[in-house]
Design goal:
The protein is α+β, with helices and mostly antiparallel strands. Helices cover about 30% and strands about 25% of the residues.
């Protein structure tokens, strides 16, 4: 991930800038910075630092203001992402949340939201984790794609998205709603907590190609979540995510472009939930099976 490159200033630029153009540029930059810090209802630095501390300690944080605007939530999310970088490792990708109508209804919001994925949150298929891996731990069936080209920002259809991907991976997301009362957060509230990003269990990669049959299979597949005995806990169609799961990629790529972030080969994108959010129980295992994809792949996790 990178923002558009900025030219390096020559050494002499350290001397006072005297041209009218340079002074005007500084005024514009200062004005933009002021606007960024004045986002309505953006949480203060101390509030974000406490939220990050509680995230690391697996302690519920104070609920964000119910009056928080989305602009303020995005400002707070970006502060939180910077704060978490010290403990969660490098940024490896992004997640789209609230892409499923059922999940949107739960959080009383009608549009997707974006979070950031960290390196230390990635787990291999079959991982074993504590049932209390977070302050408010949950699990859900997800899907992660690996970017193959920055041309993904130009994709307008699922087939074009496939042409800009390297791989598709079954995934179980283990999100953490992290606040004291998750029932009282909506779109801005879920945004400011980085869309609950905590852990992501990744299955084996499926090579991606611009094949209409693969595009159709992703839309038409049934994702089943089962426990260790094979009992079905929930299921959902591929089309439950924005009518086609790769539409979440299109949304993410555009949202990131507006933020000045360019996706690069190897970046990971989480597409959202095919199932309801469920609480983990100690001593249980869960598996998500993607019926309709080649080989009916799956991914699993065990809670201790």
């Amino acid at each position: 991930m990178r923002s558009p490159a900025e030219p390096a200033l020559p050494a002499r630029a350290a001397r006072p800038l005297r041209t009218a153009a340079a002074v005007l540029a500084l005024v514009v930059l200062a004005s933009c910075a002021a606007l960024r810090t004045e986002a309505p209802t953006c949480p203060g630095d101390a509030e974000i630092a406490e939220m990050a501390r509680r995230y690391v300690a697996l302690e519920p944080a104070t609920n964000p203001l119910e009056s928080m605007t989305m602009e303020g939530a995005v400002c707070g999310r970006d502060k939180l992402v910077r704060a978490l970088g010290a403990t969660q490792g490098r940024v490896v990708g992004y997640k789209a949340g609230l892409t499923n109508p059922a999940v949107q209804k739960r959080f009383n919001w009608t549009a997707p939201v974006r979070g950031t994925l960290f390196e230390r949150g990635l787990l291999a298929d079959g991982a074993e984790v504590p049932a209390k891996f977070g302050a408010r731990p949950l699990f859900e069936a997800d899907m992660v794609v690996e970017v193959g080209s920055s041309a993904i920002h130009d994709a307008k259809t699922p087939l074009q998205v496939l042409g800009a991907l390297r791989a598709i991976r079954p995934a179980l997301e283990l999100p953490d709603l992290v606040v004291q009362d998750p029932t009282k957060i909506s779109g801005p509230g879920i945004t400011v907590i980085n869309v609950g990003a905590r852990l992501m269990v990744l299955g084996a990669p499926i090579p991606a190609s611009a094949d209409p049959r693969l595009a159709d299979a992703l839309r038409d597949m049934t994702v089943r979540v089962v426990d260790g005995t094979g009992k079905e806990l929930d299921s959902g169609k591929g089309s439950a995510i924005l009518e086609h799961p790769l539409n979440a990629v299109i949304w993410l790529a555009e949202d990131l472009r507006r933020a000045g972030i360019v996706l690069e080969p190897g970046d990971l994108l989480s597409l959202g939930s095919f199932s309801r959010l469920m609480p983990p129980q100690p001593g249980t295992a869960v598996r998500a099976v993607y019926e309709g994809l080649p080989g009916n792949p799956s991914v699993s996790v065990r809670f201790r």
